[in-house]
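> example.struct
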């Protein structure tokens, strides 16, 4: 019938709203990191009752902001 792990991953990608755990899995970071990003305002969750979810669009915006931000310059060995 198919690999259950693969089927689960496909269904997570197709969801409009994700749990923090599912968002962490897609970003390949820990759940605690996702909660910290939400607390700092870097990820904006959607609250439904007492539950919080993160939209696929918000994850995309977060990743695009990361890609657009200049990386911190590393001094070259010759500069020392």
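> example.seq
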């Amino acid at each position: 019938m198919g690999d259950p792990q693969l089927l689960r991953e496909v269904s997570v990608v197709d969801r409009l709203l994700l749990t923090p755990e599912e968002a962490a899995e897609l970003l390949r970071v820990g759940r605690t990191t996702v909660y910290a990003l939400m607390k700092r305002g870097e990820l904006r969750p959607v609250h439904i009752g007492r539950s919080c979810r993160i939209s696929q669009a918000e994850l995309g915006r977060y990743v695009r902001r990361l890609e657009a931000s200049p990386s911190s310059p590393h001094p070259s060995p010759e500069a020392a």
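> remarks
The mean pLDDT is 85.
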